[in-house]
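_Full entry_
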Amino acid sequence: MLITHDTRCSLDAVVDLVNTAPDDETATDELATVVALADFVRKHDISEVGVLSEFDLAAVRRVRGRFAEIFAAAEAADAASAASVINELIAAAGTTPRLTDHDGYDWHVHYFAPGASLADHLSADCGMALAFFVVAGEQERLRRCEAPDCRRAFVDLSRNRSRRYCDSRTCGNRLHVAAYRARRKEAAG
């Protein structure tokens, strides 16, 4: 599956956006303030964003919940539900595909209308990036970490669709070390 630079940027943004939500009632929301939202925009170099407000924060948090639904549907192998949510997001955003070559990037497609809100911008660009996976029959690549104490979202871009953890250096390594220690303890008897 060919993934262009702008699609990859949108995938990174949607994964990070979904992962800002608290996993449970004890965790904190990483997108709790307009300042946190501005940091998110800067981190992902999201273009054409005006002054952010509490309204933007609330709208982006609603969109974040819809993106989480897409990951849940993909995890349940429910392409129809994932497609339905994606269609709702991109329709509500007033998707307007256009070619652009800003900020030193080659030609690429923006799916949001000029002057769109940040929530519509994310809905359109990130929604289309996720749509490409559903169209290609690759929605199972939209996953949640399999570590028992982690449910972070990620996109499995491995060749053989074998990635199981959000980060092999943390979650994956931690589980492998625990399994190794359990085997050593059992062998020591």
Remarks:
- The chain is about 50% helix and 5% strand.
- The mean pLDDT is 90.
- The CA atoms of residues 39 and 45 lie 10 Å apart.
